[in-house]
Request: fold
Amino acid sequence: MKIAIGNDHAGTEYKVTIVEYLKSEGIEVINYGTNEEASVDYPDFVHPVAKDVDATNVDFGILICGSGNGVAMTANKYKNIRAGLCWTKEITELTRQHNNANIVCIPARFTSQAQALEIVRTFLETQFEGGRHLNRVNKIPSCI
Reply:
């Protein structure tokens, strides 16, 4: 499995913890995030992740910022991206099961690092249910 990860200054410590976990699981990680805590513009780190997921160069993406909203909004500008803002295990499960999310967005200022790891594990372990949800997911990229 191959994952692209990106973060702004609010997510640097979380990214380090998540990358260590992913590598310990034998997952290849492409790090597009900042390694600093100085203020940066989150879109600069979202676009490379979203492009890699959109082009299927990686299996999934992980994005981390203070609220998770900015990274989710930016990533969801790409046609084939379904970026879900997740702050609990249950929301993460539903984001994968019902929405077939391919990027998980984590709000660093509203979750602990332990919760963030649980979100990542849940995201990677949960499968899309398909069925009645497939028709809905197929309608997401269409503007009517």
The chain is about 45% helix and 15% strand. The chain has a mean pLDDT of 96. The helical segments are 12-24, 43-54, 69-75, 89-99, 113-125, 132-139.
